[in-house]
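In this section we turn from sequence analysis to structure. A common task in structural bioinformatics is to predict how a protein folds when a small molecule is present, because the ligand can shape the pocket around it. The inputs are simple: the amino acid sequence and a SMILES string for the ligand, here pyridoxal-5'-phosphate. Study the lines below before reading on.
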Amino acid sequence: MSTSVKNGLQNVRAAIEHAAAANGREAANITLIAVSKTIPAERIEEALAAGQRVFGENRVQEAKAKWPALKARYPDLELHLIGPLQTNKVREALALCDAIHALDRESLAVTLAKEIARAGRKPKLFVEVNTGSEASKAGVAPADADRFIETCRERHGLAIAGLMCIPPLGEPAAPHFTLLAKIAERNGLALLSMGMSADYEEAIAHGATHIRVGTAIFGTRA
Ligand SMILES: *Cc1c(COP(=O)(O)O)cnc(C)c1O
């Protein structure tokens, strides 16, 4: 067990180096978020022992159960909330997380603005774009993205750092990565959270600055 997380990380890091070099990019400009949802703390410890410091969880409740103890021991670790966020969980999320990847509606922007001011925290904020316009998926529609970003900035005073997407299953991801990069560029956003275990190398080719990788590091989730 203990070598497998380490090996998974080594393989992913090597692939990042390779994809970065192939696209004339610096691997240092690509943040690997190790997605640890459903993964127990012992396995997370293996990743920490292998030097990994940036992690992603998709539920606030689960993050609360696992991360305060780990954060106390590893003050330099960074936790990203990559899943949907309910407004009634914003305070807890901000207390624990350094980045929020699924800002996708004005009610959430309002609550985030209020709680960020109250807590004096400066989380990295990503607007989620539903690039595949899937009814089942969170995220703002591509056609509404510019206006939503402006609303977050101008009306709610939020510093938006970048964009995030989850391409539809079973479709080539590249057009979705291209679309996200285009929306980011015309809105002056530097960060792109895109690419998972199956497609992070392709995401790097399209400019990803943050890749969210679970299975390729920790193995198949139960
Ligand atoms: C689970 C999850 C991931 C990681 O998926 P893998 O295929 O295991 O790499 C990435 N992003 C989000 C939003 C997730 O929920």
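Residues 35, 37, 58, 82-83, 166, 196-198, 212-216 surround pyridoxal-5'-phosphate (CB under 6 Å). As an exercise, try to locate the residues that line the pyridoxal-5'-phosphate site and compare them with your own expectations.
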